[in-house]
Amino acid sequence: MSLVPPESASADLTKGTDEGFRFQLPQFLQARSGAMTRELLLQPGKHGLGMTPDSLLADTTTTATCGYCATGCGLRLHLRDGQAVGLTPETNYPVNMGMACPKGWEALRVLDSEHRATHPLVRDPSGELVTTDWKEALQKFCDGFRKVQQNHGPESVAFLSTGQIACEEMAFLGALAKFGMGMRHGDGNTRQCMATAVTAYKESFGFDAPPFTYADFEQSDCLVFVGANPCIGHPIMWERVLRNPNQPDIIVLDPRRTETANAATQHLQLRPKCDLKVLYAITNVLIAEGFVDHEFVNAHTSGYDDLVRCVRDFSVESVAEESGLEAERIREAARTIGRSSAVSLWWTMGVNQSYEGVRTAQAIINIALLTGNIGRPGTGPNSITGQCNAMGSRLWSNTTNLLGHRKFECEQDRMDVADILGIDVGRLPTEGSWAYDRIIDGIRNGEIRGLWVIATNPAHSWIQRNELRELLGQLDFFVVQDMYRNTDTVAHADLVLPAAGWGEKDGTFINSERRYGRIKKVKRAPGLALADFQIFRAIAHAWGCGDMFRGWTDPESVFQIMKRLSAGRPCDITGIEGFDQLDQCGGIQWPWSTEDSQRGAPDQERRLFADGAFCTDDGRAKLIVDQVSPAPETPCDDYPFWLLTGRGSVSQWHTQTRTDKSPVLRKLYPNQPYIEINPSDAARLMITNGGLVSVRSRRGEVTVRSAVTTSVAAGQLFMPMHYEEANVLTLSHFDPHSRQPSYKDCAVDLEPLKD
Ligand SMILES: Nc1nc2c(c(=O)[nH]1)N[C@H]1C(S)=C(S)[C@@H](COP(=O)(O)OP(=O)(O)OC[C@H]3O[C@@H](n4cnc5c(=O)[nH]c(N)nc54)[C@H](O)[C@@H]3O)O[C@H]1N2
Ligand SMILES: Nc1nc2c(c(=O)[nH]1)N[C@H]1C(S)=C(S)[C@@H](COP(=O)(O)OP(=O)(O)OC[C@H]3O[C@@H](n4cnc5c(=O)[nH]c(N)nc54)[C@H](O)[C@@H]3O)O[C@H]1N2
Ligand code: SF4
Ligand SMILES: [Mo]
After folding, report:
1. Most CB within 10 Å of its CB: which of 259, 475, 530, 700?
2. Distance CA 471, CA 207 (A)
3. Dihedral Cα 583, 586, 592, 597, nearest 10 deg
4. CATH of domain 121-192+389-553
5. Which residue ranges does the record assign to the 4Fe-4S Mo/W bis-MGD-type domain (predicted)?
6. Range 195-383: architecture per CATH
7. Per-residue model confidence (pLDDT) at position 53
């Protein structure tokens, strides 16, 4: 098989799409893929990326981790007089080895924008957002939330945070909001993203512990990607796959023929939401055909008999029919997994964003455990993280888990944290936060009256967002803290706090393979914008709880507090000396305890569970199985299509507040919203490529362009989440265990419109 991307990746894309929807589909498909990334890597500068002439004026350089995706590439920043004037991918970083995708290359450019929030803004009586200073902004912040708490109780104010600020900022926010300001409820956009993987790992391994390291991409002889499209979402991880010397089998489970599926040796193009059945059928074959590693299963797992009983009901033939696959393809995939000596199974949002995502993730975990594919090079049931610091949010956000992945409900845990922080244990809530959707319910029924949103844009990204926008309007007091003042969420705010962004502040991020890496201040934030860290400090002082955070003077001092909070836990980082050591070692993966550090310098690649000892009470990993449930909203006569949503191109990031500020990135994706439709459906409905269509669900209706392509199957449609239209259509429904929204399934109709 060939792992080399199509030759024609060199199509001239600089013609761009700024002036309208003028792309030719084949060119566009390459532009949005990893193939394009490769092209850019080989010839930096060709499309306007890379070293700017200013870089030649640099007098010194430093390194930092990229601030977009959880790959966590190292970037080298070229500085003049202490200010960054250009960047290049870092060659000496174990993650990316000199590669970066277009977002990374353009990371500095998006900081200079007329849309930056440069001053605090407050809504005046006429409804306009007007500029103010920090003194008045902090006064408004405290008066606004205090008034709500006095009238409706301390728990009537909540926060929604993010996987895109530094660990030290997350810890500060969580501690300030809950221990300082008396809030109980605060959740993050990681609920939209990683909650399913967190719950699945916690239940199966006893701790939220992704076991892998990126070297595994290069060491497997079989890689399985379930609901993941790394060519788009994690292009540098995909580059690592391309470096695999073993001519690996690549099995992709995705209803769409994605860029990743195109490069696979086996594409199981299953119907949407059939993964659990298909994975159980694969498990069934593994058991029936003798591929189980009984020695490993007996020594290190529990629940095998229940699993055998459960999957017996999922015969390959019946599942083939229900999932739209050929029985032989399911068998072939199972046998490939069974016969390979190092299998790694990777999953992302096609699994996590599902109403039965946790059990699906656990079906993947089960396959790895049954076949003994864990703790060795090239193996693992591996959830790939989305945002640059989603892993940080899992450990340090103090939302549903107490700091360091402890439990609010556990008295000993509360006492430990109070002791380390030197605060009264009575200040710690005795229960975790409501999940995101419950906070939204709380706004609907008047339990939540004040909301503070930090580094997330829910008015675009939350499921069924029209309703959310209405609810934001019902709040008594609403504060948004963001880098830009033109986001969909800022439009609803009573108060806007201007934040510095990546490149304008210090701290640490944790990438997908558990690697702590540094971000650095290499540029002055515009106007009065402050690092989130400084905003939290100023709020603590204004609120009157500054004393509690006396030692939290800068990110590095908070990192030292985090070390103490991690001691003795599976995420122990007491052996990391400090920020300088992170720089010297190319980042350090957790765990790295004092005891580990006595053995020498940290290895660059470490994986978990090599000894088969898991974090559960009995040390065994749990094989967890469940009933399969039907999708809540399936296509019908009125809404005959499945709508899938997800990432559209390498050059677009989420709600586009950042990526649409780069003229280079804007040339690499269609600027108008579009929906992908199969040629047979397009022909039947007389829809032309690029023509206007109206798309309708039970929640709302939008007008977008059509993109006719065989990458979606007949009866299915795909709309990138980067356009605000997508979540007008989606349906509020959730995984019952993780409360993660099921963004990738709902029923819609579409019809052509006249241009
Ligand atoms: N360029 C870019 N990169 C990004 C991001 C970005 O916005 N832009 N965001 C980052 C973040 S936060 C995240 S979480 C990751 C997401 O990274 P991915 O999860 O790889 O991206 P998605 O496109 O959301 O979803 C992956 C695939 O799931 C498939 N899918 C939909 N329904 C099903 C199903 O029922 N079964 C299966 N098996 N597959 C299904 C979709 O067709 C899609 O191809 O990307 C990260 N990287
Ligand atoms: N239909 C559909 N919807 C989805 C998804 C999907 O696949 N389909 N995917 C979901 C997933 S996986 C995710 S992760 C979410 C992402 O959804 P969001 O978190 O809403 O998306 P972003 O655009 O990343 O929003 C981040 C915000 O933080 C701001 N920001 C950036 N850096 C900083 C900083 O340092 N400080 C501060 N204060 N602000 C900053 C940005 O300007 C931006 O407004 O979307 C979810 N929504
Ligand atoms: S792959 Fe992710 S971390 Fe690497 S440069 Fe691109 S956005 Fe940044
Ligand atoms: Mo995400």
Report:
1. 259
2. 35
3. -70
4. 3.40.50.740
5. 59-115
6. 3-Layer(aba) Sandwich (3.40)
7. 58
Query: 438-446 long-range CB contacts below 8 Å, 24 or more apart?
Result: 438/185, 438/739, 439/158, 439/160, 439/185, 439/187, 440/468, 440/471, 442/158, 442/185, 443/471, 443/472, 443/474, 443/475, 444/471, 444/474
- Out of 187, 383, 457, 748, mutate this one to test ligand 2's pocket (max ligand atoms within 8 Å of CB): namely 457
Is residue 256 a contact partner of residue 648, using CB atoms and an 8 Å limit? no
**Contact partners, residue 684, CB within 8 Å, separation at least 6:** none
Q: H or E stretch including 561? A: helix 555-566
pLDDT at 457: 98
Kindly write down the DSSP assignment for every residue of 481-516, as one continuous string: EESBS-STTGGG-SEEEEB--TTEEEEEEE-TTSEE
How far is the centre of ligand 1, averaged over its atoms, from the C-alpha of 518 (Å)? 26
CATH number of this structure's domain 2-100, picked from the four choices 1.10.357.10, 2.20.25.90, 3.90.226.10, 3.20.20.140:
2.20.25.90
Bond prior to 210 in cis (omega within 30° of 0): no
Per DSSP (E only), the strands in 34-96 are 60-65, 74-80, 83-89
Residue carrying the six token digits 């996987």: 163
Q: Which atom of ligand 1 is nearest to the CA of 718?
A: 42
Centre of ligand 4 to C-alpha 646, Å, is 10
Report the nearest atom of ligand 1 relative to the CA of 258: 44
d(CA 623, CA 621): 7
Closest residue by CA, ligand 1 atom 15: 386
Strands 266-268 and 477-482: unpaired
Instruction: Determine whether domain 641-752 maps to CATH 2.40.40.20.
Output: yes
pLDDT of amino acid 58: 84
Q: For a substitution probing ligand 2, which of 121, 164, 723 has the most ligand atoms within 8 Å of its CB? A: 164
Answer yes or no: are the C-beta atoms of 751 and 650 closer than 8 Å: no
**What parts of the chain have a pLDDT lower than 70?**
1-55
Task: Tell me the residues surrounding ligand 4 (ion) with CB < 5 Å.
Answer: 193, 386
What is the whole-number distance in angstroms between the Cα of residue 103 and the centre of ligand 3? 6
Q: Which strand (E) or helix (H) includes residue 478?
A: strand 477-482
